[in-house]
Write a structure and sequence with these properties.
heterodimer; A: 433 residues; mainly alpha; two-stranded antiparallel ribbon; 21 helices; elongated; B: 293 residues; two-stranded antiparallel sheet; 12 helices; 2 strands; 68% helix
């Protein structure tokens, strides 16, 4: 090592110590200037060398002249090929090798031409990309599916893929497919704002905001490029829910409602009929339990609808007229937070697995068990205290019917007689004056 | 036959009634200004029956007519349906207690031999109804002469008795449906509910139109008959509204007066006889006569 005392070289070109110092100083100045020029010149210099991207984000489809010209035509496409007219009959690839430089980052997708056509160039091909987490993101879009979707004639790719409206596309930052969906679903709110807003009040968003990445976002139920009307056919809704709620879906599928829905019956409730659509609330709340009766009543009080199936439209009325139903009605008036211990429709009929009550042994047989949840000492006689939605009549509950008729007759007769007596009395007293 | 009726022969009774009805005031000097119509036990019974009835109607009717706005208003202002039902059961216990006290008081009266079956309907009551209607229609100028309780009051009394039995039994079925269906069919519960509501409505309408007219609004009692609270009724009202009872009491008073006079006369005669008798045995016994002291 040079210790700073001995001469650097003792050979024929040996310099004096002073000269050596000057040389070193000069070299340092030159070196610094060179570095400074290199650093600034890269930005300011007019002929800066194109930086080689480390890895192309998306490889160019390199199949020929025509494809290239879709972007790189001669009318202002970026980057504009200067003076290529001489090569019009020569294929691009004659000069440009198979790993061409990418266009400058941030270049806009050509204006004036259909962005869709531009996108199609790449995305109609089986291209994929590998996300950081190792999953494969399929980048191929079946345009005929998109054309048949509700958005097909209305939206261009970049209407939703706003970030991808520039080329080359910005780097995909997400690591997983799920993150990709979550990062992009909010684009729906640009048009479907009110429905998006409703989702913010939903039990799904609640789970999402608590960090549950599997909570559904728009595209999980509606799909993305293949969005069709959610209720066409109606069973589609139930299918969407079934992707998470498998057990409920299967139970529902065996129910009187579910079986009819499989036949695309327009009258039976699908999942969303009861649970709502975008602002789905938890069905385990006191408020949902309180409202569940009116929920069933929406259809089961509709005489026109019930007549079609030979079902009484008075089932809600008869329930609400009974002790438990009256309690429910008052609780609803008091507060939506009161947990109704009294049975509601679903306690006897079930929830998702509702069967036809006329089927042997479906409800009647289990009724005592239901009663015993609150009346543990109830005996076999007890359930018939509930008249099974029947209006009292001579054939159904004759005792109740007769008592009712008795008072219907007695009260007007008695009160009418007493009133008559009073009027006679007043009349006489008036005449006495 | 009651003691009073036994004390008053039909002929005497009729004569006394006539006397009173025609304004014969000869008996006035002997009759007190006021009569005790209801004793303390009866007044307390009425008070608690009234309070419990009002509260039971207030808490019960909204349950029967649960869909009406006023029912909702009442229930919410009472603190909700649970509170309303709790109150209903509390006052049900009060009313049942009143009923038991009433039965007990009847039994006590019976045991002590003081039970006056003044509430027992008789043929006379039906005749009174007929007479009253004729009077109201102007077919006769003679108002029926009532005894201690007129037919209206008897009707109401027995209405309350039967009504209380029905409402209590059905109410207990509704309160303890599990217990009752241990040995009764389940259908009794909705039947009891129907009867409970029907009976309650009947009772309410009877009280509002019949009782309140009779005791508050009738031109004869307006602004209100206070006898059930003070226990007292004036001599004039006794003469007007209960002439037969008045006559009977008057006869009893007269008889008592006559007996007292007879006893006095007998005593005076005995004293006179004693005066004529040799001294040393005075009616004063061993006491020193005051004039001698």
């Amino acid at each position: 090592m040079y210790d700073g005392k001995a001469p650097l070289d003792t050979g024929p070109f040996a310099l004096s110590r002073k000269a050596t110092r000057r040389m070193l100083l000069l070299a340092a100045v030159l070196g610094l200037a060179l570095v400074a020029w290199a650093l600034t010149g890269r930005q300011a210099g007019p002929v800066a060398a194109q930086p080689q991207p480390a890895t192309p984000l998306i490889s160019h489809p390199l199949e020929g002249f025509g494809d290239c010209l879709l972007c790189h035509d001669f009318s202002g496409i970026v980057p504009q090929p200067p003076s290529h007219h001489a090569y019009e009959s020569v294929g691009c690839l004659a000069c440009h090798q198979e790993s061409p430089d990418l266009p400058e980052a941030g270049a806009a997708v050509p204006a004036g031409s259909s962005s869709r056509e531009n996108c199609r160039l790449c995305h109609s091909r089986p291209i994929t990309m590998t996300l950081a987490g190792g999953e494969t993101l399929n980048l191929q879009v079946d345009l005929s599916t998109f054309d048949h979707s509700v958005h097909g004639v209305k939206l261009a790719c970049s209407d939703c893929h706003t970030r991808q409206a520039v080329f080359p596309h910005p780097k995909v930052e997400v690591a997983t497919l799920r993150e990709y969906a979550i990062a992009n679903y909010q684009v729906c709110s640009r048009c479907h704002f009110s429905n998006y807003n409703k989702t913010l009040d939903s039990v799904h968003y609640d789970a999402f905001s608590r960090g549950d990445q599997n909570a559904p976002v728009c595209t999980d139920c509606h799909g993305s490029h293949d969005v069709t009307r959610a209720n066409e056919p109606r069973s589609k809704m139930a299918l969407a829910c079934s992707s998470c709620h498998v057990a409920v879906y299967e139970e529902y599928g065996r129910s009187v409602h579910g079986r009819a829905l499989q036949e695309e019956n327009p009258d039976v409730p699908a999942c969303t009929t009861c649970h709502g659509v975008h602002n789905i609330q938890t069905p385990e709340s006191a408020a949902f339990r309180q409202e569940s009766v009116s929920l069933c009543g929406r259809c089961h009080s509709n005489a026109q609808l019930m007549d079609k199936y030979g079902i009484s439209a008075n089932v809600m009325k008869s329930y609400l007229n009974d002790f438990h139903g009256k309690t429910l009605t008052f609780y609803k008036k008091e507060s939506s937070q009161i947990w109704v211990r009294e049975p509601v429709c679903t306690d006897c009929h079930g929830v998702h697995g509702i069967q036809d009550p006329k089927d042997e042994g479906s409800i009647k047989a289990n009724l005592l068990e239901v009663c015993r949840k609150c009346h543990p000492d109830a005996t076999a006689n007890f359930p018939s205290a509930w008249l099974s939605h029947y209006e009292p009549s001579l054939s159904k509950a004759p005792a109740v019917y007769l008592v009712k008729v008795f008072y219907r007759l007695l009260i007007p007769f008695m009160i009418g007689g007493l009133m008559l007596h009073i009027l006679l009395d007043i009349w006489r007293l008036a005449r006495n004056r | 036959m009651t003691q009073a009726q036994q004390a008053l022969s039909p002929v005497e009774g009729a004569a006394a009634t006539e006397e009173v009805a025609h304004g014969d005031l000869l008996g006035r000097e002997a009759a007190p200004e006021h009569f005790v119509r209801f004793n303390v036990v009866e007044r307390v019974q009425h008070f608690f029956l009234m309070i419990s009835f009002i509260m039971l109607v207030t808490t019960g009717l909204p349950q029967k007519f649960s869909t009406t706005p006023w029912a909702e208003w009442i229930v919410l202002h009472l603190g909700g349906i649970d509170t309303t039902r709790a109150l209903h059961r509390i006052f049900a216990v009060v009313m049942i207690t009143v009923a038991l006290v009433h039965v007990l008081s009847l039994v006590v009266s019976l045991v002590r031999g003081r039970l006056r079956p003044s509430m027992v309907p008789s043929l006379r009551d039906f005749q009174d109804v007929f007479q009253e209607v004729r009077y109201s229609l102007g077919l006769t100028e003679e108002h029926p002469h009532f005894d201690r309780f007129e037919y209206r009051q008897k009707f109401e009394y027995w209405g309350i008795i039967f009504g209380t039995v029905v409402i209590t039994v059905t109410g207990l079925i509704l309160w303890f449906p599990v217990t009752f269906t241990q040995f009764l069919p389940g259908e009794v519960v909705p039947a009891a509910r129907e009867a409970h509501g029907g009976e309650a409505l009947l009772a309410l309408l009877t009280i509002v139109f019949w009782h309140l007219y009779s005791v508050l609004l009738s031109p004869l009692t307006f602004p209100g008959d206070t006898a059930i609270f003070t226990g007292r009724i004036s001599r004039e009202r006794m003469m007007r509204e209960h002439p037969r009872e008045y006559a009977r009491i008057l006869t009893e008073i007269r008889a008592a007066e006559a007996a007292r006079r007879a006893a006095e006369a007998a005593a005076a005669e005995a004293a006179a006889a004693a005066e004529r008798a040799p001294p040393g045995k005075t009616p004063q016994g061993g006491r020193d006569p005051p004039e001698n002291g």
